[in-house]
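DATA SHEET
Item: assembly model
Revision: 1
Owner: S.N.
Input lines:
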Amino acid sequence: AILRSSGEMYQCSCSCQWNPDLEPGALIFISCLSVGKDVTYICPFVGALRGTLTVTNFRLFFRGISRDPAFVLDLPLGVVSRVERISGASSRGDVSYVLVCKDVRTLRFVHKQPDDSLQKSVFEVLTKFAFPVSNSLPLFALEYNQVFPENGWKVYDALAEYKRQGLPNESWRISKVNDHYELCDSYPAALVVPVTITDDELRRVAAFRAKGRIPVLSWLHPESQAAVVRCSQPMSGVGGKRCKDDEKLLQAIMDANAQSHKLFIFDARPSVNAAANKMKGGGCESEDAYQNAELVFLDIHNIHVMRESLRKLKEVVYPNIEESHWLSNLESTHWLEHIKLILAGALRIADKVESGKTSVVVHCSDGWDRTAQLTSLSLIMLDSHYRTISGFQKLIEKEWISFGHRFQQRVGHGDQNHTDADRSPIFLQFIDCVWQMTQQFPAAFEFNESFLVTVLDHLYSCLFGTFLYNSEQQRVKEELAKRSVSLWSFVNSQVDEFINPLYVHYPAHVLLPSVSIRHLQLWVSYYIRWNPRVRPQQPVHQRYKELLAKRAELQKKVEELQREVHNRASASSERAGSPTRSITPVQTFV
Amino acid sequence: MLSLGGGGAKSTKPSFVSYVTPEEIKSEKEPPKKEKHPDLLPGEVIFCSADPVLKHTQDDLSQRGIFGTLLCTNFRVSFVSDETPLEEMTQHFKNKLYGENDIPLMCVDNIYGVYDEKKKLITKGMLKNKCPSKMIIHCKDLRVFQFCLTYTKEEDAKKIFQGIAHHCLEPKSLKCVFAFSYAASSSPEVQRSQRTVMFDSKEDWTQEMKRTKANLRIVTENENFEFSMRLPKFFIIPAAVTDEDISKFPGKGLPVWCWSHHSGCAMFKASTLPVPQEDGLMQGYMERMLHAVAHTHLYSLKLEDLSETLPTIQDIQQSYNKFKQFFLIDNSTDFWVSDVKWFSTLENTGWLDIIRQCLQKAVEVVECLEKENTNVLIMEEEGSDLCCVISSLVQIMLDPHFRTLTGFQGLVQKEWVAGCHAFLDRCNHLYQKDKECHSPSPVFLLFLECVWQMVQQHSPAFQFSETYLTVLSDSIHVPIFSTFLFNSAYQRESTMKAEAQHLQRGPLNCPAVWDWSVQFDCKAQELFINPLYADKLKQDKAIRKVPRAKHQRQLSLPSSAFKTPPKKGFFKDETESLKKMLRVKRISRWMASPDSPAAATREFYETWQRRPLDYHGLLLPCLDGPAMRLWMQRYLRWIPEVQILGGGPVAITSMLAELLSQVQDLRRELDMRSCWETEAESLQLRPGPLALTRTSLRLSSSFPFASNRNWTFKPAIPTSLLQSLMVTDRLASQEDETNEVISLV
């Protein structure tokens, strides 16, 4: 899906020959570099390819010459993580540079330094427009003004979503304490808390929880009233500080569920890390202070471990795969083991809520990375609504965007500081986990693989406003909904492309995936999609779609025949007995 | 609300879980002593039995289980539960010959005894030892049974243990195999599989030659095996081989025809000649054979000695032995421990790599036939192991006929059964211990593995399903079928004759495995058919060539730059050099192209990959690391920890079944309304698919296997999370937030 990007401007080009795929009327900002200075793309699969390179304020476009069909490389600049010039590559004044991308690939170009020194070099333009934030330029999403039939900003409305879950009810209320983001600047405005807890008590709890991220409800089981609650770590510190209000709040959460007299607290971290956090004032709930609560550690590692794991994975899959040691290389990245731990954690949460009918509290350190992964995955397991396209959009809007997953920091939109330790593929891991579940339950999800890949592509592309900024507060302040387009506007305007034809809606069907590593696979059509040898394998979907089309066709024919029979019957008195040959020959092929 | 994890589902669990010891039960009620045994097959005799025996339910570490009777017959080891099974679970897929608690004797792989909590492999010499408290049986179809003998009377326990161990571990003679008692006692009207070509008559071979438009010489002189006992009754050789040469080295080194390409070139296989003697006799003979092969088409030849480039059958055996251990799991703890280093252990077995090498070799041969139109002669010591693997794979890749169910069965008959693959020795059906001369090796299973890789990569090209392949791999160890019982056509015929004489009756009627109705009813057999198969007849011309699914942002790769340079070393167009080379002592092998052979076929694959995919044309497998997959259905079907309830491929199968039946209903409706026009066509309707949809939520991913195992609805949660991932990195201890939050402008 190549988007026509209104608001896109020509920034730089190495050739005039390129016919830009821009919206009519898009402003040509800077004209081309001199003609004939060809660029070579060093493709790791095919070898060197000569062609023309164009850079706009949104994308990099390379079109090869001398090939039919033309080789095309189309890359949103937001994907670029780092641009590096390789000096001294050649004595003839060639410039060589490498683009390291966030979507697991690395591109290398070589071109002759243009003679005309007045022209900007591609390199300079690239470094400027790939990293607008570092260059005090606006992100492209804020200039993009394509109009779509659907408005994605309307997909998620917190109150409507809580209403769907039957909230507020006799045990839970929607508090306005964070209406102006004063209680917690990384939380959404609408918070669901037990009715027995006052806003004042909530404020005191906020002082005890890291970053003020108090325990609030994420999801309520429609039957058992068991709740999934999320928060950050308690600031108990070395001394084991306690907070009466926090203890009361957790007790109230337990009491809101009459089915169980127990509460499970899932700490996503390894217990060692939780203990280490005490030195910095953090920690975990002690079972002395929280009676009837059981603390479980889920052993999921931190953002730095995950970043390192993805880096290793990239080394293993791009550009070439070492055939004979593929499996052990894959194992050495630990990527799938991390996926396994996250899925296992979510499975334990879902199991406690569903089978144990017990309410659960989930937190990690700050409650915006591992916690978001765990709650959103367990919600997908528990609630079939989140497996629909619109439900999944709501889930991302709710558990990730509104609850302050730090997209800006974790992705580093438009920021040239590629070594920033805050970057981490947390959201990618979540989508990977969802993909693993779609593989295990091929008919349980309304969306297809292409939908998940599209979400990830636009996580980096900076074309849509959806994944910009770190919190709801910032988005409201920046009027993001007014100034940018939502990814869901694009998706929902061509939703057919993202539908899984095999989908069957089973309401109230709980998914319990297998988390054994034997069932986990590397998501080849995402991580290895740049390798031309790796072919997408969706013949099943293809055939299935054919069958669907055949069914529709036959249904139409049956209807036609019925109409004809009906017409004939009304006129049969005169023409009784004569077989009508006008019926269209029936095609019985499938 | 349908709650899969809820207690409501559990209450319907029909299996009996014992919380009391049998002593307690017995004191309460003395069960009326009645003979309990499975429905015996014709010719089946019970050797011994013991009661009560506790069969542990596998999905549990605790000592819970089901009580029942353990029997050993001349066909199987059988466990009959004391509980009458609830008929609530409809079995979609019941084997008529043996149930899920039965183990055909040939299917027993290893027996372990647990003595004082220690697991020991039972060998022949240990039979006189004292009886173990627990007997663990590992099966060749990857099932694991645990029978606890502590509740059984000591002498009964000893008897059953020794009985089972004796009948499963002692070497036997071929005539003791159950198939003969079965054939002798069963009604002789076992019908021959109707449509599978058996390749045991001259007509079958001439028909196959006609089908492939081959013009070669059929040899009929071996009808009574006077000329070679290692060759089939009828076989086809290059037309240029002289009568004198045929009988020179009985059967050795003779190029036997496998298949002809539509261009005219053909593939032959041959066993290698004995070690050359000093006279030039053998060399001259070999040269004449090569000339004869080369003469078949354009005087071109590629010779491939498989024993030089592929793993030996001993390597294959060793690798598989290591590999299968990872699926024979005794308890949950072992499972999760082995989950940790899963990928590297899998890689260390080398099994997937052997599969890759075989597919790779087959692709190389395909390239010769398809691209270079060169005759190919594959050789190997016996000419009936890896030659069978490679030639069968090549034919599946090139000829869509062999991707249909009957075509595939015909292929197995042609290359393996008639081709004299030594099934008896390779499968070690008789438990011979002197492995030196018999060399057991899962060569046929290796072939099925390779086919499975193709099936999972290009499923619409195959008429049969993976379930079919799994069942076929199980059937190897069912001692009923003549198909996998003999080393050669000669042995088959002579043994059958001798047995019939012994019984003083007409010819014995051993069913072929292709008589699927012996094992499964029609409904179960429907699961052999791939509902996605892109039938040639029914496919529209316009959509026949399926455009390849475009990658998400896939780099489009143009085709022009991929002209492969003509490879050196092919004899085509190089008659002079051919003659020269043939005079040289050693005959040309694959010429080392500048790159490795893998790199060369890579180009061939990539060129093929860029063309639109035609399911009825050439089909090549992708051999990259991530493309080589584990045959989950076969290897994971009995392991409770990996079952996905309401998921797995059956979720798709049931969807497809429903859609197909809807399409058929519509068609039928149309046919009825316009019956005079489409009467003939309505006969083409496929049999109605299974109505699985309503139950699919409760089916597990192991479907259609293990259907009465009643997987619990509890999720399998790893027990050893912490030790699974030891990140000792400094990163692990680092804080998530390195610096204070800086908000974006």
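QC remark: The two ends of chain B are 48 Å apart (CA to CA).
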